[in-house]
Specification:
alpha/beta; Nitrilase/N-carbamoyl-D-aminoacid amidohydrolase; globular; binds N-(4-carboxy-4-oxobutanoyl)-L-cysteinylglycine; hydrolase; EC 3.5.5.1; nitrilase activity; Nit1/2_C-N_Hydrolase
Length: about 280
């Protein structure tokens, strides 16, 4: 990784129209290129948000289908890496999709994919009831990959609430930058979004890039928004002035910040993972 490299996180309000969302993404790619970013991260469901969550089954496609081909061409034409967080990938039968985070390089090649592990089956207090598992197959592979922006850890949205995954990414897979594309609900976002993201950055000493859906997608659906880039000390280094507007947040990833935070506070040497204290207490 270069000593400093500029990245961007998109914030958008995707709708139930594939071509309208692609136009928005193309415009944001141009903005990111103009800002000097080498990587642009898009939120969960960047290419489509149905008025009801199960609606997205109808537009699910394989990774070599026409939708993903267009995004690969977009990356290639603009010579920029794209993190596409939460693509509706066709599942193993017609009633399931996979919620897949796709990483495309600046030559338009898919470098890595990760399918969301933790599915959002939640009765949101004061909000709607979600049952993502009714139409989604959970992934079960932890995915980290080297890139010009450091070693990236791929996650999606609700994964954010499960710190074990991020511990695994940092301490077993060597992640330096954690990506959390999301479509958080308004209620849970207000209560938890920034706190959870900053906690993940601090406890793993990683950069966190969190691209978010924000605003009203339809009469029925609204997302919290607030795309953030956070440094390994937990400081917010990239944010839009408005939580729900469409645009990009830009920040520089500095190798020296990762190194300095980690060497001054060497938590990788101090940590006592669960296997350690379980075997210690067993011998009492
Ligand atoms: O279903 C779709 O169309 C798109 N998928 C989503 O919006 C997903 C699953 S329903 N949303 C979340 O994971 C919200 C998590 C969240 O809000 C929290 O953890 O608080």
């Amino acid at each position: 990784m270069a000593t400093s490299v500029r990245v961007a996180a998109a914030q958008m309000t995707s709708v139930n129209d594939l071509s309208a969302n692609f136009s928005t993404c193309s415009r944001l790619v141009k903005e990111a290129v103009t800002a000097g970013a080498k990587l642009l991260c898009f939120p969960e469901n960047f290419s489509y948000v149905g008025s009801k969550s199960g609606n997205s089954l109808a537009i699910a496609e394989p990774l070599d289908g026409p939708i993903m081909k267009k995004y690969c061409s977009l990356a290639k034409e603009s010579s920029i890496w794209l993190s596409l967080g939460g693509f509706q990938e066709k599942g193993s039968d017609d009633s399931h999709l996979r919620n897949t985070h796709v990483l495309i390089d600046d030559a338009g090649n898919i470098r890595s994919t990760y399918s969301k592990m933790h599915l959002f089956d939640v009765d949101v207090p004061g909000g709607a009831v979600y049952k993502e598992s009714s139409f989604t197959e959970a992934g079960n592979d932890v995915v980290a990959i080297d890139s010009p922006f450091g070693r990236l850890g791929l996650t999606v949205c609700y994964d954010l609430r499960f710190p074990d995954l991020y511990q695994e990414l940092r301490f077993r897979h060597g992640a330096e930058v954690l990506m959390v594309p999301a479509a958080f609900t308004k209620v849970t976002g207000e209560a938890h979004w920034e706190t959870l993201l900053r906690a993940r950055a601090i406890e793993t000493q990683c950069y966190v890039i969190a691209a978010a859906q924000g605003g009203k997608h339809s009469e029925e659906r609204e997302s919290y928004g607030d795309s953030l880039i956070i440094d390994p000390w937990g400081k917010i280094v990239g944010r839009l002035s408005d939580r729900t507007s469409t645009g990009i947040a830009v920040a520089d990833i500095e190798l020296s910040v990762i190194q300095s935070v980690r060497s001054k506070m060497p938590i990788s040497q101090h940590r006592k993972p669960v296997e350690f204290w379980r075997s210690a207490s067993a011998s009492l």
